[in-house]
Design brief:
The chain contains 6 helices and no strands. It is an all-alpha fold. Among the domains are: 26 residues, no CATH class; 36 residues, no CATH class. The longest helix has 14 residues. The two termini are 48 Å apart.
């Protein structure tokens, strides 16, 4: 509380807030001063020709209320036609026209395997299609097993042991012996 007392001159926060709030209610609100509006009775300012305007020109005169609307628009068009204002944002992904697709060139299309299969399917006749279906549904030829000596797995030694978490094997006990009590599993902590 000592820091607060030093900060506000031994006056508590709520009493200070209340006092300032009361002062704000008692004082009449200050009228905002307009930021020097253009006098509507004044004649329009002397304007340079629109053709001679550059990015460094002063365009404030064209915004006067007595300036013709067409002249104002022409001056603003001249200002915003400058290349400085026509730089598109590279991150704006919605500016492209996606309604016009960019087709693949014929050379690239010919190289695609998928396109080759599609073209192959389109050019084959009905008889060729039926023959391929019949060959696919027929039984595959029997596979002969190679000799073990020629087998690439013949030189492989014993397989390495792999640790697998399996439940313990429960051995059956004689009917005459009482069952052994289960051993509690150790907890890792």
């Amino acid at each position: 509380m000592d820091e607060d007392g030093k900060k506000f001159g031994n006056e508590e926060f709520l009493s200070r807030w209340s006092r300032l709030k009361q002062q704000a209610r008692d004082e009449p609100p200050a009228e905002p001063q307009p930021a020097s509006p253009a006098d509507p009775k004044a004649p329009p300012p002397e304007l340079p020709p629109v053709d001679g305007l550059t990015i460094d020109s002063d365009f404030r005169g064209f915004l006067h209320p007595k300036v013709d609307e067409n002249l104002r628009r022409t001056a603003l068009k001249k200002l915003f036609s400058n290349p400085k204002f026509n730089v598109m944002d590279g991150l704006d992904i919605y500016i492209d026209d996606y309604s016009k697709p960019n087709p693949l060139p014929a050379a690239m299309l010919a190289q695609l395997r998928q396109a080759q299969k599609i073209l192959e399917w389109a050019t084959e006749t009905q008889e060729e299609t039926e023959a391929k279906r019949a060959a696919a549904t027929a039984d595959p030829p029997p596979v002969s097993l190679p000799d073990q000596a020629a087998s690439p797995t013949a030189d492989v030694g014993p397989l390495p042991a792999v640790a697998v978490d399996m439940p313990p094997v429960v051995e059956l006990q004689d009917a005459g012996q009482p069952p052994e009590p289960p051993v509690a599993a150790e907890r890792k902590s």
